């Protein structure tokens, strides 16, 4: 059993939780804590920032926070100790930082979206496996 698990999800891709959420729930057993993280991606190009109006980032984080709260409400059973988190930045870096900061025991991550079926691991999942200090459980879709 793992006492606390980080489940990173892409809210626009149901494949990022359809099988990893049940896996995480199973690994937590009854008394654990589930941290769900969604990252508003920053593509690492400062030029992109200049296209957006000031305050865009705050607004985006707030809107995504509302979506994530709704996701928790409809996907996680009542009574589970679940904590939603929204951050902004490079996806894999944010996942790794959150795992350290939240001091989780394990990260449960889906391997990739179905569109990338030729790859066994998507770019973010691969980097998390390579760089995270915690155990990483990669859930492969069918
Ligand atoms: P793909 O490019 O096929 O989506 P990724 O490696 O980006 O492959 O995605 C694998 C997993 O990484 C997702 O299932 C999810 O767990 C995590 N992930 C991807 N994007 C995000 C995001 N924006 N926020 C949080 N987690 C994410």
Question: Could you characterize the architecture of this molecule?
Answer:
The radius of gyration is 15 Å and the shape is globular. The chain has a single domain (4-140), classed as Rossmann fold (3-Layer(aba) Sandwich). It has a five-stranded parallel β-sheet, with helices on both faces. It is of the alpha/beta class and 142 residues long. It has five helices and five strands. The structure holds adenosine-5'-diphosphate.
Compact description:
This protein has about 140 residues and is an alpha/beta fold. The protein has helices spanning about 20-30, 45-50, 55-75, 90-100, 125-130; strands at about 5-10, 35-40, 80-90, 105-110, 135-140. The chain has a five-stranded parallel sheet with strand order 3-2-1-4-5, with helices on both faces.
Task: Bin the helical content.
Answer: 25-40%
Strand content: 15-25%
Helix segment count? 5
* Mean pLDDT reading: 90
Shape: globular
* Largest sheet features: 5 strands, parallel
- Specify the structural class: alpha/beta
Cα radius of gyration in angstroms: 15 Å
What's the N-to-C terminus distance? 25 Å
CATH homologous superfamily assignment: HUPs
The CATH topology is what? Rossmann fold
Number of domains: 1
What is the number of beta strands? Answer: 5
Note the run of SSEs as H and E: EHEHHEHEHE
Runs with pLDDT <50, length 5+?
none
- Specify the CATH class: Alpha Beta
List the ligand species. adenosine-5'-diphosphate
How are the strands of the biggest sheet laid out side by side?
A: 3-2-1-4-5
């Amino acid at each position: 059993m793992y006492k606390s698990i980080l489940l990173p999800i892409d809210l626009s891709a149901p494949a990022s939780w359809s099988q990893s959420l049940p896996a995480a729930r199973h690994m937590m057993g009854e008394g654990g804590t589930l941290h769900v993280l969604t990252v508003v991606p920053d593509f690492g190009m400062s030029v992109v920032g200049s296209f957006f109006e000031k305050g865009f980032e705050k607004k985006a984080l707030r809107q995504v926070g509302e979506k994530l709260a709704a996701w928790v409400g409809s996907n996680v059973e009542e009574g589970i100790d679940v904590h939603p988190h929204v951050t902004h930045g490079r996806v894999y870096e944010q996942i790794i930082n959150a795992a350290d900061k939240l001091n989780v025991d394990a990260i449960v991550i889906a391997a990739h979206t179905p569109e990338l079926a030729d790859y066994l691991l998507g770019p973010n999942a691969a980097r998390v496996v390579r760089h995270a200090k915690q155990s990483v459980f990669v859930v492969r879709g069918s």
